[in-house]
Every structure is written in structure tokens, then in C-alpha cells.
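Exercise 7b. C-alpha cells:
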């Protein structure tokens, strides 16, 4: 959640609501369609630039409800702290675009847990479940497939 907290608090407050929703709702809670990837990528690029100007100390590391992070707090700036997530988005976005171009099959880009068991669950979860989701995203909740 640190990535989304950083973006929400420091990088996108002044952007148009529709663009903010791509990151704050679509990527955080649901998934991105291929038609949304270019705008989302630009939003994340701008967020990364903004976060590169802010020290890691600009995050409150002990708010109520935050799970202890394993991120390297010695990173210097916020963009370096969460840089691997920006890079992962770029790889996933490019992969989804190539899959659509090559096979004409839409692949959603979504935030999920990276462990193998959780990934297997998420591959089976229908996109309709993401669309109907209210509250915290599946990757934060430890709920079932129901």
C-alpha cells in the first residue's frame, strides 16, 4: 500500500479526477484495460518524477492499520523506495499490449500479491468480481474466492 499512499498523498492530488481514478481506483482496487494503459502509464511517470523530489522521511511509517513494510527506507527518495513497482507496471503494461497485438486477446493489468499461491487464486478470479468490489482490494484482503 505504500506505493499507492505515496501517489495518493504526494503525486496526484492536483490531477483531473478521471485520471486520478485510473490509479486510485482502477489499478489499486480493480484492473486496467488495454485502452487505459497509456494514460495510466503517463500518470505513473509523472508520479515517479514527483516522488523523486521527496525524501523517504515524508511518509508516516506508523499510521494506524499499516502493516510493517519491508521496503528499504534507506532508499533516499520515494521514487527509489517504490521504483520496482513502477518498473513492474511498465513490464506488465507492455506485456498486455503485446498480447493484445499478437493474439487479439485483452489481458488486464492488476495489482496482486506476488506469491505463487495467491497468484493462482487471482488468475481464477473473474473480472466481474473486481468490478463489483467495494472497499479494500483483493490483494490486501485475505478473503476467499467467493
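Sequence design result:
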Amino acid at each position: 500500500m505504500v506505493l499507492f499512499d505515496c501517489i495518493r498523498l504526494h503525486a496526484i492530488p492536483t490531477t483531473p479526477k478521471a485520471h486520478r481514478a485510473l490509479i486510485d481506483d482502477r489499478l489499486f482496487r480493480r484492473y486496467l484495460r488495454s485502452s487505459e494503459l497509456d494514460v495510466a502509464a503517463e500518470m505513473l511517470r509523472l508520479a515517479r518524477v514527483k516522488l523523486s523530489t521527496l525524501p523517504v522521511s515524508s511518509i508516516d511509517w506508523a499510521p494506524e492499520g499499516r502493516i510493517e513494510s519491508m521496503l528499504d527506507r534507506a532508499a533516499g527518495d520515494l521514487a527509489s523506495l517504490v521504483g520496482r513497482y513502477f518498473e513492474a507496471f511498465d513490464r506488465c503494461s507492455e506485456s498486455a499490449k503485446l498480447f493484445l497485438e499478437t493474439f487479439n486477446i485483452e489481458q488486464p493489468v492488476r495489482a496482486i500479491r506476488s506469491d505463487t499461491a495467491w497468484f493462482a487464486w487471482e488468475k481464477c478470479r473473474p473480472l466481474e468480481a473486481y468490478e463489483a468490489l467495494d472497499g479494500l482490494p483483493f490483494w490486501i484482503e485475505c478473503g476467499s474466492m467467493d
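Instructor comment: The chain has one domain: 2-131. The chain has a mean pLDDT of 83.
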